């Protein structure tokens, strides 16, 4: 089949975007941002949802190649295993942009750039805050800071990296110990249930470190049900800064949130245009992200988009 | 220690090929076999006799490795065996047809006959050779069905013949047939017996179970009688009479009956009477050609015919188990259309199927639940049958039909074949139908119970119930019925009052004659 | 006693008790229950409360399985129920009012009953194999739930809604009371009326049942509706527990938990005889297992391994053959062949 | 319907002896094929480039592992069982492959290690199911947990595969006439399929599989090797899962404990859509192949569309599945 390239005309760019799925509110915000900015940027978007499966993502990328799009962007479900299909894209002369998560490949010529946050850094930021505010966090003043960790889905890259970053930063203060760590699958329900049993099996918990806001919100419910005050009796640190999380932070129920920005659309479209035009782009583009304590949250809340 | 009571049959033709000694088997709550001895000689047909639940099938399953034996020894051809599975016993040269048809309806006839022994060619199953071999066995049994057709399409009688065919194909020194003839007609039985005769002459030992005494006396050389799981004795057939045998089986004398005391309803079509059921042109493509039928209150209609003549299909259409393509049914003058059995049940019609395992028994429910299933279904789930009524009905019918074990909470699957049949009969009697359609109701039922059931049918008819009675046993049909309908090639060919002029021979002649005219029609099946 | 040892219920109860004993050994306070803000508080109470949705779904599943079916769509139906209720509450004029919750719950349950009718229709009227018929809704249903919530986690702030999943009456969790009430009603319907027997008969031998005049089609249809109803109520509890509808994760894999609960409870997937009490024990077992993992501190990586070991242990415990083999006795005679 | 059982039948029936397989066995498969063709027709009208034969070939390329899984699953389902462990065993196989390769094992040794461990797991499961009479559903669920647990035990993170043989296999291309190509995985899958079809339809083992699915107790009483076959099908399924795992490892060039989550459902769906009865005893391996292709086509359809949001994707998959099974049911209904 040698059909003419559907979008050969230089003014309209077709982008194939292979999303991980729609597993969380964060991801949905990410998808929306990309769809909306594509529209305003005049880029024709071919969107596909992999439902958290790498093989589906590979299939869609292959189908994008088949459909001869101008640029392919995707958020890899997992870091490894992309060489084959990216090689095919390279052979077909279609540039590739990674978003949100990196790929683990020796051959960096397979993609043009990687746009996204660094999960290890996120974990580190959370840990650093705890080191700095450590003594305030030792709610019961017993001289040790006892942390329980609500992990994301076992094996998922954000879960692994945030844990690693946090543990690295935590070493700076020997009083901090992780007393228990269990997966809450990134969900509120999971966070709540795991926290419920932590509250019963662990004594004197000082801090909860949740790998995302949703689990943190679940933990709040469990803490309240136990008759304790979240944010005071037990401090909570989480990552993401989605709206519900920020609201809880502003209300004093969470103590610290590290932002993980889902609004990658504008930066992505920008990069895509440059890549298609053949301009050079930096190999790594970090998203603009910040951190929030309770005061910052109060200030930022009215203007949050998601 | 159990002494063989009668004279040991003289010159044993060689040593026994099968010898079972002191066999005991218990199931939870039942001692199915207690210290039973049994032996089978080469070149004989040996009948295993006993009432329903006497333990015949259990003895066969003990021999062939289906059940593990609690106590006792089994010797086959001189060596001790304790078969762990039917496959082992097959390997030792025992070929068995168990009581219920145990085949796979999802496979073809040929596959069923040759499973496990398929002919191979170039490492793959040779389908052509397989069909050819199946064909030749079927021919031996006089059965002209397509070996490549699916087994499930065929009636239970055909399936039974296929099962027999499978057993015959195995080159065995022992052939066991547990009630092989229960749904076969006389013609088929004759063919089977011819084959059995041949095998016996070749020195094969044949174990045969049947409740038809005539058949037993015709084919067997010796017999062993069981009662309540115990050995009663071993007899030479030629030294025994039917009466003596029955006495040995049931442990008392059987009241004889020849002609049932049944008042045929004041007969002759009084044209003014409205029939209970008036059927006009009832037909279904490929199954039944247009049938007209009138059934009056209190009448027993016997349906006679050979295998595949369409009797079962007629019954199913009357009951709405299958839907008719054409024709009308009037119940007491008003037009009814039965699309489902429920409709027919609502019109007080009952139907007991010939295929008890697939279409009757609900294996994992108790006797009581099985008996009350239809009554309960008719009342609707919200109105359970009150406990008292329930107990009363169940005990009443267990007693009336002599169901064993007489325990309402026994699981249906653990009942012997004949007792299952009785429970199913009770299921329908409990609904007090106006028309009772019985397809092979006496299949697998022992001689004593058969008489009981016949008497019951006669009594019900006297009380005003109409009965359609289908049976391969023509004598039974004639003994019971007021009118006889004769079927052939899926059409009704005769319908006459059952007076002295009607005889078994006469009916067979009718069928044969009808066959002459309708020969052409069955080719478009 | 021997009779008792043969009952699957005995063994699943034993397994449940062993699991509780293990927890108590590791965390002595596991059994302690205290009064907290006017309601009972403790691990056992958590198990009851969090086990309620699984129990509900498993109840519906028991009846479906009894008719030889299976319902894979329960998780999706639960998600839809939560989504409908939360979106309705969040979008109403008075999102904090009790009356809003009442109509939201009614609406959600109504939707679920429609979904059940749909499943039942495909299975009983169209004759599609249950696993595929319900796979359709399993796939599409989650999409529908996300369509309803627009892919977001919809949070509601409404004390009345919270009661359903996280509230207490008379010191006991409302969720388990609802689940037990449904259990009681089902048990009464199944065992005091003839419904249970008819369902079993349809499951054991559909053709024989049809010929005996049982309304096999209606019964099959009804159990799917009931199952969807249970899934819907479970979905409301899940949403209420965190005051949010998470279309993606609410009720995820609950079908596996429910089926496992049913099977551990002694009901065969081949249909027929069912045990509601067994399902109750099975559901509590599943939830206790889930609670055990964080309580005794199994590392996240070893979750599955632990589950695998427990499930294998339970099924061997329940298998009469395995018990006989371990006692190194001659296996019981092949009763299975008694079917012949 | 086609045959008469009349004993007094005329010899015309002898003609039928020659026609071996009643066509109704093929009816569900025929329906699947018809629908597949219809779907491609609709696709090529709607989307540019859909009619390209390479799209069809890519169905095989992208679903080679699913086809291999489907072959094993067909055996299991035909006996009336079910195997939920296949997805986890695929993941475990990728993990074993990736970690042993990383440790420097030569590729052939790795391959043998993977195949042996998958087969062992399958056999073990079969033994528990047959001899301890544990229901297949929970036995395989336990193995599903076990395999997933072992994955985490090996490593929580994903492990890349950089070994030469594997990468060559993964990135290799088998040219076909007309400028088209498939991957070596497709060749493997087709060979597995052919062997599976041979065993299932041409050998005694295959017939016994059908017999056990038709009625286990009958098969037992007929003296068939029920135990051998029942353990055998789970062994086959384990072997197929391991093989599919290797193909998957090549496809993604990585080992990861979260690979193939829920793939057991895809495999079961492919088998059942292909016309095999979940209760056992009826179905053809060919149907499974078309079932796999159909699932693949649904996905291709959706990715060509490219405008569907995540939830419309799910809804569309469900709807297409529904349309499919309903039409298939209507087409095959006549047989009763
Ligand atoms: N699996 C079982 N569990 C419990 N009881 C059983 C089982 N199988 C048979 N029985 C009981 O053992 C006794 C003997 O049954 P068996 O089937 O051998 O009788 P039978 O002589 O073959 O009768 P029939 O002529 O009715 O076939 C019966 O009381 C029956 O209920
Ligand atoms: N569902 C069906 N599909 C195909 N053929 C059928 C079906 N039902 C009946 N037949 C055929 O119709 C014919 C009539 O069968 P039927 O069972 O009514 O015969 P019968 O007189 O009762 O004999 P039998 O003693 O074999 O029961 C047979 O040739 C049978 O194979
Ligand atoms: Mg018997
Ligand atoms: Mg008949």
Automatic annotation (TrEMBL), chain B:
What region holds the ABC transporter domain? 18-253, 272-514
| Primary location class | membrane
Could you tell me which Pfam families the record lists for this protein?
A: ABC_tran (PF00005)
Q: Which InterPro entries match?
A: AAA+_ATPase (IPR003593), ABC_carbohydrate_import_ATPase (IPR050107), ABC_transporter-like_ATP-bd (IPR003439), ABC_transporter-like_CS (IPR017871), P-loop_NTPase (IPR027417)
Q: How does it sit in the membrane?
A: Peripheral membrane protein
Enumerate the UniProt keywords alphabetically.
ATP-binding, Cell membrane, Membrane, Nucleotide-binding, Repeat, Sugar transport, Translocase, Transport
Quick one: a GO cellular component term?
Answer: plasma membrane
The record's Gene3D superfamilies line, in alphabetical order, gives: P-loop containing nucleotide triphosphate hydrolases
Please tell me whether the keyword Repeat is annotated for this protein: yes
- Output the Gene Ontology terms for molecular function: ATP binding; ATP hydrolysis activity
Keyword Nuclease among record annotations: no
Instruction: State its location(s).
Output: Cell membrane
Q: How is this protein named in the record?
A: Simple sugar transport system ATP-binding protein
Can you name the source organism?
Kribbella voronezhensis
From TrEMBL, chain C:
Where does the UniProt entry say this protein principally localizes? membrane
Sample GO molecular function, one term: transmembrane transporter activity
Mode of membrane association: Multi-pass membrane protein
Keywords annotated in UniProt: Cell membrane, Membrane, Sugar transport, Transmembrane, Transmembrane helix, Transport
Q: Where in the cell is it found?
A: Cell membrane
Transmembrane domains' residue ranges: 40-65, 72-90, 96-118, 125-148, 168-190, 219-238, 250-269, 276-298
InterPro entries given in the database record: ABC_transp_permease
User: Cross-referenced Pfam families, in alphabetical order?
Assistant: BPD_transp_2 (PF02653)
- An example Gene Ontology cellular component term from the record? plasma membrane
- Name assigned to this protein: Simple sugar transport system permease protein
UniProtKB/TrEMBL annotation, chain D:
Report the membrane topology from the UniProt record: Multi-pass membrane protein
Q: Does the keyword Cell membrane apply?
A: yes
Pfam families xrefs: BPD_transp_2
List, alphabetically, the InterPro entries matched.
Answer: ABC_transp_permease
By what name is this protein known?
Answer: Monosaccharide ABC transporter membrane protein (CUT2 family)
- GO MF assignments: transmembrane transporter activity
Q: Which PANTHER family match?
A: ABC TRANSPORTER PERMEASE PROTEIN YPHD-RELATED-RELATED, INNER MEMBRANE ABC TRANSPORTER PERMEASE PROTEIN YJFF
């Amino acid at each position: 089949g040698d059909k003419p390239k559907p979008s050969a005309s230089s003014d309209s760019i077709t982008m194939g975007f292979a999303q991980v799925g729609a597993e969380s509110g964060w991801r949905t915000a990410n998808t929306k941002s990309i769809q909306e900015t594509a529209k305003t940027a005049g880029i024709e978007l071919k969107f596909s949802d992999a439902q958290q499966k790498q093989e589906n993502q590979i299939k869609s990328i292959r189908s994008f190649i088949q459909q001869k799009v101008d640029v392919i962007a995707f958020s890899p479900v997992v870091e490894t295993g992309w060489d084959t299909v990216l090689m095919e894209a390279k052979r077909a002369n279609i540039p590739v942009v990674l978003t949100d998560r990196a790929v683990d490949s020796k051959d960096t010529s397979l993609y043009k750039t990687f746009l996204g946050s660094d999960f290890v850094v996120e974990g580190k930021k959370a840990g650093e805050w705890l080191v700095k505010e450590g003594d305030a966090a030792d709610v019961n003043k017993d001289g040790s800071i006892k942390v329980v960790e609500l992990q994301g889905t076992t094996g998922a890259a954000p879960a692994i990296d945030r844990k690693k970053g946090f543990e690295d930063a935590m070493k700076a203060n020997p009083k901090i110990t992780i007393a228990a760590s269990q997966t809450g699958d990134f969900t509120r329900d999971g966070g709540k249930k795991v926290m419920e049993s932590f509250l019963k099996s662990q004594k004197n918990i000082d801090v909860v470190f949740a790998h995302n806001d949703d689990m943190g919100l679940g933990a709040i419910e469990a803490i309240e049900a136990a008759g304790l005050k979240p944010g005071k009796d037990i401090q909570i640190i989480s990552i993401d800064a989605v709206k519900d999380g920020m609201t809880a932070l502003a209300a004093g129920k969470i103590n610290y949130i590290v932002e993980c920005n889902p609004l990658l659309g504008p930066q992505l479209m920008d990069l895509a245009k440059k890549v298609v035009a053949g301009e050079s782009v930096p190999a790594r583009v970090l998203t603009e992200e910040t951190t929030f304590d309770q005061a910052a949250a109060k200030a930022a809340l009215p203007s949050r988009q998601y | 220690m159990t002494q063989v009571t009668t004279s040991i049959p003289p010159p044993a033709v060689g040593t026994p090929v099968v010898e079972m000694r002191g066999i005991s088997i218990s199931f939870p709550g039942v001692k199915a076999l207690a210290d039973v001895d049994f032996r089978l000689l080469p070149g004989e047909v040996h009948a295993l006799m006993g009432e329903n639940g006497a333990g015949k099938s259990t003895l066969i399953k003990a021999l062939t490795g289906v059940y593990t034996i609690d106590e006792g020894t089994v010797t086959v051809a001189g060596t001790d065996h304790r078969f762990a599975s039917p496959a082992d016993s097959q390997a030792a040269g025992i070929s068995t047809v168990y009581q219920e048809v145990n085949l796979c309806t999802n496979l073809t006839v040929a596959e069923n006959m040759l499973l496990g022994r398929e002919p191979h060619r170039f490492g793959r199953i040779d389908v052509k050779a397989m069909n050819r071999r199946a064909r030749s066995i079927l021919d031996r049994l006089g059965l002209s069905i397509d070996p490549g057709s699916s087994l499930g399409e065929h009636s239970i009688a055909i399936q039974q013949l296929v099962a027999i065919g499978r057993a015959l194909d195995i080159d065995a020194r022992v052939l066991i047939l547990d009630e092989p003839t229960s749904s076969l007609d006389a013609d088929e039985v004759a063919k089977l017996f011819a084959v059995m005769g041949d095998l016996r002459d070749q020195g094969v030992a044949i174990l045969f179970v049947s409740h038809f005494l005539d058949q037993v006396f015709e084919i067997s050389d010796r017999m062993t009688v069981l009662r309540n799981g115990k050995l009663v004795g071993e007899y030479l057939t030629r030294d025994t009479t039917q009466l003596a045998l029955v006495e040995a089986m049931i442990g008392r004398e059987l009241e004889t009956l020849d002609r049932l005391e049944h008042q045929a309803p004041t007969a002759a079509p009084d044209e003014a009477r409205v029939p209970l059921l008036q059927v006009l042109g009832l037909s279904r493509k490929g199954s039944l050609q247009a049938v007209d039928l009138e059934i009056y209150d209190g009448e027993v209609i016997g349906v006679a015919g050979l295998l595949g003549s369409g009797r079962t299909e007629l019954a199913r259409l009357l009951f709405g188990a299958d839907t008719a393509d054409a024709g009308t049914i009037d119940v007491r003058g008003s037009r009814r259309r039965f699309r489902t059995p429920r409709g027919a049940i609502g019109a007080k019609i009952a139907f007991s199927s010939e295929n008890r395992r697939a279409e009757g028994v609900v294996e994992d429910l108790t006797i009581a639940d099985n008996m009350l299933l239809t009554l309960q279904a008719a009342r609707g789930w919200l109105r359970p049958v009150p406990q008292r009524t329930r107990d009363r009905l169940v005990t009443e019918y267990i007693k009336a039909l002599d169901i064993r074990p007489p325990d309402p909470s026994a699981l249906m699957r653990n009942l012997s074949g004949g007792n299952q049949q009785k429970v199913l009969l009770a299921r329908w009697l409990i609904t007090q139908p106006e028309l009772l359609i019985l397809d092979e109701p006496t299949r697998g039922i022992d001689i004593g119970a058969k008489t009981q059931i016949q008497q019951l049918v006669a009594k019900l008819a006297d009380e005003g119930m109409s009965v359609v009675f289908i049976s391969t046993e023509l004598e039974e049909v004639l003994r019971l019925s007021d009118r006889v309908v004769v079927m052939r090639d899926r059409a009704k060919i005769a319908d006459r009052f059952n007076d002295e002029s009607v005889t078994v021979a006469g009916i067979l002649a009718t069928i044969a004659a009808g066959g002459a005219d309708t020969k052409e029609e069955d080719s478009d099946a | 006693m021997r009779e008792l040892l043969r009952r699957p219920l005995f063994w699943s109860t034993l397994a449940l008790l062993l699991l509780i004993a293990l927890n108590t050994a590791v965390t002595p306070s596991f059994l302690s229950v205290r009064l907290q803000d006017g309601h009972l508080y403790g691990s056992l109470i958590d198990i009851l409360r969090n086990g309620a949705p699984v129990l509900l779904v498993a109840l519906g599943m028991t009846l479906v399985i009894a008719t030889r079916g299976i319902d894979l769509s329960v998780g999706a139906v639960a998600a839809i129920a939560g989504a409908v209720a939360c979106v309705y509450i969040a979008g109403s004029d008075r999102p904090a009012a009790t009356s809003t919750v009442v109509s939201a719950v009614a609406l959600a349950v109504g939707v679920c009953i429609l979904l059940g009718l749909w499943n039942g229709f495909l299975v009983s009227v169209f004759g599609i194999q249950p696993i595929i018929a319900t796979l359709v809704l399993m796939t599409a249903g989650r999409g529908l739930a996300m369509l309803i919530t627009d892919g977001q986690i919809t949070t509601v702030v409404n004390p009345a809604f919270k009661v359903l999943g996280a509230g207490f009456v008379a010191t006991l969790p409302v969720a388990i009371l609802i689940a037990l009430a449904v259990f009681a009603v089902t048990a009464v319907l199944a065992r005091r009326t003839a419904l249970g027997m008819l369902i079993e008969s349809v499951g054991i031998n559909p053709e024989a049942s049809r010929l005996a005049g049982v309304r096999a089609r209606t019964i099959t249809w009804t159990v799917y509706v009931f199952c969807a109803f249970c899934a819907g109520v479970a979905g409301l509890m899940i949403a209420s527990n965190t005051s949010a509808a998470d279309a993606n994760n609410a009720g995820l894999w609950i079908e596996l938990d429910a089926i496992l609960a049913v099977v551990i409870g002694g009901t065969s997937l081949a249909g027929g005889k069912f045990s509601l009490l067994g399902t109750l024990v099975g559901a509590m077992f599943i939830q206790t297992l889930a609670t055990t993992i964080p309580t005794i501190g199994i590392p996240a990586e070893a979750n599955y391994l632990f589950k695998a070991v427990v499930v294998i242990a339970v099924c061997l415990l329940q298998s009469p053959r395995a018990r006989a083999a371990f006692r190194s006795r001659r296996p019981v005679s092949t009763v299975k062949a008694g079917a012949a | 319907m086609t045959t008469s059982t009349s004993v007094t039948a005329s010899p015309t029936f002898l003609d039928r002896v020659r026609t071996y397989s009643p066509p109704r066995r093929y009816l569900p498969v025929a329906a699947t094929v018809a629908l597949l063709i219809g779907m491609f027709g609709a696709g090529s009208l709607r989307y540019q480039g859909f009619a390209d034969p390479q799209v069809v070939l890519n169905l095989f390329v992208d679903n080679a592992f699913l086809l291999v899984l489907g072959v094993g699953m067909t055996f299991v389902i035909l006996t009336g069982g079910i195997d939920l462990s296949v997805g986890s065993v695929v993941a475990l196989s990728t993990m074993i492959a990736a970690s042993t390769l990383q440790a420097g094992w030569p590729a052939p040794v790795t391959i043998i290690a993977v195949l042996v461990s998958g087969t062992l797991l399958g056999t073990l499961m079969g033994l528990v199911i047959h001899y301890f009479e544990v229901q297949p559903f929970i036995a395989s669920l336990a193995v599903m947990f076990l395999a997933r647990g072992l994955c985490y035990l090996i490593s929580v993170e994903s492990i890349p595969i950089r070994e030469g043989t594997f990468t060559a296999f993964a990135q290799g291309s088998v040219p076909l006439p007309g400028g088209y190509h498939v991957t070596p995985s497709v060749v493997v899958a087709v060979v597995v399929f052919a062997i599976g079809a041979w065993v299932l339809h041409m050998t005694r083992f295959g017939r016994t599989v059908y017999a056990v699915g038709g009625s286990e107790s009958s098969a037992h009483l007929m003296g068939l090797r029920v135990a051998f076959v029942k353990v055998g099908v789970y062994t086959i399924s384990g072997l197929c899962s391991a093989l599919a795992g290797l193909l998957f490892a090549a496809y993604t060039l990585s080992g990861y404990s979260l690979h193939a989550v829920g793939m057991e459902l895809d495999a079961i769906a492919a088998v059942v859509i292909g016309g095999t009865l979940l209760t056992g005893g009826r179905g053809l391996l060919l149907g499974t192949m078309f079932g796999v292709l159909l699932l693949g086509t649904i996905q291709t359809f959706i990715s060509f569309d490219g405008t569907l949001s995540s939830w419309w994707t799910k809804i569309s998959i469900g709807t297409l599945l529904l349309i499919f099974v309903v039409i298939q049911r209507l087409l095959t209904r006549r047989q009763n």
